[in-house]
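User: Could you go from structure to sequence for me? I need the amino acid at each position, not a summary. Structure tokens:
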């Protein structure tokens, strides 16, 4: 089930997107989207995955959480963007492996 952003989930989207927050705080916010598939969180997580200046662990978690969007109306968009990220170069073997796992989950 995909839900639109309510005030509660908007808070987590903002925490995840704010680079001034600690990596652990951002990871905790991202993990919220495993079971609460918020559409507005997808572009934030896709940006994290492709941004090589982001922490490697954060990027890996963002890629993993995107794999939970198997029934999302944005599944094709997620798959397309992750494939483009792989093609352009990820800069991290760990992130590359997680993107590939996520793509398999979304098949």
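Assistant: Here is the amino acid at each position, in order:
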């Amino acid at each position: 089930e995909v839900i639109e952003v309510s005030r509660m989930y908007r808070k987590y989207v903002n925490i995840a997107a704010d680079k001034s927050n600690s990596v652990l705080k951002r990871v905790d916010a991202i993990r919220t989207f495993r079971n609460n598939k918020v559409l507005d969180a997808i572009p934030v997580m896709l940006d994290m995955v492709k941004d090589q200046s982001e922490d490697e662990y954060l990027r890996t978690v963002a890629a993993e959480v995107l794999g939970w969007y198997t029934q999302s109306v944005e599944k094709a968009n997620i798959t397309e963007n992750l494939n483009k990220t792989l093609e352009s170069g990820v800069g991290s073997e760990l992130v590359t492996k997680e993107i590939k796992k996520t793509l398999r989950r979304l098949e």
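One structural detail worth keeping in mind: The mean pLDDT is 92.
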